[in-house]
Amino acid sequence: MKITLVVNREEREAAVHGPESLLFVLRERLGLLGAKDACLQGECGSCTVLLDGEAVCSCLVMAGDAAGSEVLTVEGLGTEDELHPVQAAFVEHGAVQCGFCTPGFLISTAHLLGHNPTPTTDEIREALAGNICRCTGYGAVLRAVESLAGERRS
Amino acid sequence: MSTTTRTRVKGGIGESVTRPDGVPKVQGDFAYASDLQAEGMLWGATRRSPHPFARITAIDIAPALAIAGVFAVLTHDDVPGRPTVGQIKPDRPVLAGGEVRYWGQPIAITAAEDAETARRAAAAIVIEYELLEPLTDLVKAQEQGEVFRHVRSLRGEPDSHGEIVVEGYYEMGTQDQAALGTEAGIAFPDGEGGVDLFAPSQWIHEDHGQIVASLGLRDEQVRVHPAGVGGAFGSREDLSLQVHLCLLALYTGRPVRMVYDRQESFAGHVHRHAARMWYRHEADSQGNLIRVEAKLLLDGGAYTETSPAVIANAVYFSIGPYRCPNVVIDGYAVRTNNPPSGAMRGFGAVQTCFAYEAQMDRLAAEIGIDPLELRLRNALGPGDQLPTSGQVITEPLPTVEVINVLRALPAPDLDVIDDPLHLPGGTGLTTTREGVVRGVGYAVGLKNLAFAEAFDDYAEARVVLTPQGVEVHTAAIEVGQGMVTVLQQIARSVLGTEHVVVLFDDTSRIGSAGSTSASRQTQMAGGAVFAAASAVRRAALQRVGGDDMDAQGVRRGGSLVATVEDLCAAGPVEETVRFRHPDTEEPDENGQGNLHVDFSVAAHRAVVDVDPELGLVRVVSIDAAQEVGTVLNPQSVVGQIEGGTMQGLGLAIMEELIFDKGIVRNANFTDYLLPTFLDAPPIASIVIEEPGNWGPFGAKGFSELPAISSGPAVMAAIRAATNQPLTRMPVRPEDIALSDS
Fold first, then answer.
1. Is the confidence at residue B1, as pLDDT, over 80?
2. Rounded to an integer, what distance in angstroms lies between the CA atom of residue A89 and that of residue A143?
3. CB of B222 within 8 Å of any CB in chain A?
4. Which of B239, B297, B238, B240 is nearest to B273 (CA)?
5. CB atoms A94 and B639 under 8 Å
6. What's the pLDDT band for B6 if we cut at 50, 70, 90?
7. Contacts of A142 in chain B (CB under 8 A)
8. For B264, nearest residue in chain A (alpha carbons)
9. pLDDT in tens, B77-97
10. I need a labelling partner for B489 at 20 to 30 A (CA). Which of A67, B130, B229, B333 fits?
């Protein structure tokens, strides 16, 4: 079947076969390779996107169910000329090593700060507990997010 | 080093320069191996053994070939060259023929027009097996002579004895690297019988040699390209899908892509060796080690892989950073029908650190002194002999200092907070504050840097000065650790210009950089870049008679005598250097000799809260003190310490690949648990900078050390909290809750 959805503020049409996931359709049909495919069972968060404003594991969403929805992937977070503040903070604070978890973390962080601009340390840790990072030990990620929470506080 | 003046340059060594690949990675533009695709490509899939040990009596590929859209179904009969792969001893079949020796072993590969069809074709192959009894017990394997390598360290008087004796038996489970990027890649036939491969690696030239042998091609017919790596930690050292992709591409004449899912990834790469270790420490009444005897068994799994090197490291680092005159250590890497083991961060030094640090704590308790005091009395430093190989330590090794700075850290002022997020069991609401007991533990770890035992260990780099800036060419692999930044910083500092790009070349364009492992690339690839950049600098100064250079050009007495454009009018200034570290020796029959070129030492202090009734643990804080040589990039150093520390924490309390008679029972992220943000305590990283003798600007490797002593420190803290011996890592809830002691 064909579905229509709004991806990164642009209306897109995609062919979907059977039970293909939203992640698969984003990556393989729409050429948006930013969302990653690390576990494919909703445990690691590397495929996180915003679906109608909610952070979801796109590997667990049937693409057919996303028809008519708005999707934001990491590619739509900033603009070509300017990084989103969350992207800039991750680079600056060394929160990116191999970077495979990074797109998911960025979306989850943007979602958190959108709802709670001044999260406490525990609120950050809880909100990002669904995103696994194997490289950083989370310290640099925490410093990156706290730098934004701090900026927003002041 | 040149004696001329050197201008400090922006983005040079010592700064927390941000990664050049950071922006593409946060934009989702960085191409990982699983992102690579091409017009007209086919998808590959792999059929694997469900049995840990069986004879293959029949393979029928006809049902797979009958499926529409299938272009290739290949078995062991289709491997034109050497039928096996392996770094040290090529004994693992590219595709299993006569028998399968481990669960998940590849038997056949398919290529089809889409991923689903390729998978269906792989599943449609009919394979008949005659099941055999798998050998999975390490002791039995050693008794039966199933040994990849036996390493013995015999030093001093084996019959000497100390008046205080502690004996212990320790076990470690199997840890997985769990890099988030799975094995993936794409191969392109070149139309002339050759192939270009893009796949994750830690050493593309080593891969190249193995691939060429199995394809039966000439060296120049295969080009292995670096591809974006989503983490490695040792898991990319041994081949996974590389030869399969090349076979399918050459057979079909089309690009072929493969992406392992997580379960297949667990089957597709080697794991950290499980271990069984028997120790006997003897000391005098003051706690000075007199003699250590140990027997180590590491589970090598079904094929050799890097087990011979891992068991050597386990033996040489079986006592830790402590002096001891009399040593009897026997280590065996044994062959079983468990999945193959190989490299993971720490490489043999992790297993033994758990055991020898537990022994040191028991010895301290037996003598009645503070465990850190015991360690300080025995601390190994420059001028001492490594207790196992007898070699004199000539490089910086501030064991005393790492212990002292950690001890001097203020005790964390951490009340047990009555918030489920801060209690063992977390938001499962299993634990109340009243039931929680707290413990503090320490551990110290030691490991070598770079390759040992007379291995011809080198790295090549090419540095080219052009009017547009400096190009650094290398085949060293950026796995996420930040080597790309450090190489850039080294070239900037040597050449006085910010305009440096690091380019990762394929195997046809530059010589080997050696492996991105053994904590070696900062010193090795970095050493090569330092040497090549220094040669470029000398040549540039010589061309126009200058004494310094910067982004503008070459200067004499401070005035510009030639711009970079002038300088390069006759062509770019280009130098290629093959850098080697100081020689090492092969061990004699007793494991003695100058086997290692360099060492690093680290220590951790862990504070834990434990619910002893449920056996649940929460790590409240874990702090690290580590010697790192000259710091080239402070942010990178802290990132490596924090990340390695968390992998050790995972190993201590949650990470274990469960083998049931050779079958992996938890090959997924639901059941193989990794530390999440909520498991991650604050980490203080104390860096001790003591310049090394042979790395660029005095830099040393260090990235494995944080993964060595962190787990043992957590285990020590849990022991302190529960007063139980806890001789198995990872510790399981039942080990704590159901303990008899």
1. no
2. 9
3. no
4. B297
5. yes
6. low
7. 677
8. A39
9. 999 999 999 999 999 999 999
10. B229
**What percentage of chain B reaches a pLDDT higher than 90?**
95
- Same-domain check for residues A115 and A64: no
* Helices and strands per DSSP (H, E), number in chain B: 17, 31
Q: How far, in Å, CA of B514 to CA of B706, rounded?
A: 22
Stretch B379-406: mean pLDDT = 97
Kindly state whether residue A79 falls inside one of the protein's structural domains: no
Task: Find the helix packing angle between B634-653 and B706-722, rounded to 10°.
Answer: 40
Alpha-carbon gap, residue B106 to B109, rounded angstroms: 8
| Contacting B residues, span 407-426, partner chain A, CB-CB under 8 Å | 419, 421
pLDDT digits (tens, 9 = 90+) for B117-167: 999 999 999 999 999 999 999 999 999 999 999 999 999 998 999 999 999
Q: Do B22 and A34 touch (CB under 8 A)?
A: no
**DSSP-assigned states of every residue in B619-682:** EEEEEEEEE-BS-S-HHHHHHHHHHHHHHHHHHHHT--BPEETTEES--STTTS----GGG---
Put simply, the answer to whether A44 touches B419 (Cβ < 8 Å) is no
A36·B230 Cβ contact <8 A: yes
CATH code (residue A59):
3.10.20.30
- Please give the residue range of the domain that contains residue A100: 85-153
Instruction: For chain A of 154 residues, list the mean pLDDT of each consecutive stretch of 10.
Output: 96 95 97 97 98 98 97 96 97 98 98 96 96 98 94 50
A80 within domain boundaries: no
In a domain, A11, yes or no: yes
Test B26 with A122 for CB contact under 8 angstroms.
Answer: no
Co-location of A57 and A25 in the same domain: yes
Instruction: For residue A100, give the CATH number of its domain.
Output: 1.10.150.120
Model's pTM, two decimal places?
0.97
Cβ of B550 under 8 Å from any chain A Cβ? no
Radius of gyration of chain B from its Cα atoms, rounded to whole angstroms: 26
Judged against a pLDDT cut of 70, whether residue B3 lies above it is answered with no
Q: Quick check: is A127 in a domain? A: yes
| Phi and psi, residue B281, nearest 5° | -105, 135
The size of the A-B interface in CB pairs under 8 A is 175
Give pLDDT tens digits for B109-119.
999 999 999 99
Looking at the 3D structure of chain A, how many domains does it have?
A: 2
Q: Are residues A36 and A96 in the same domain?
A: no
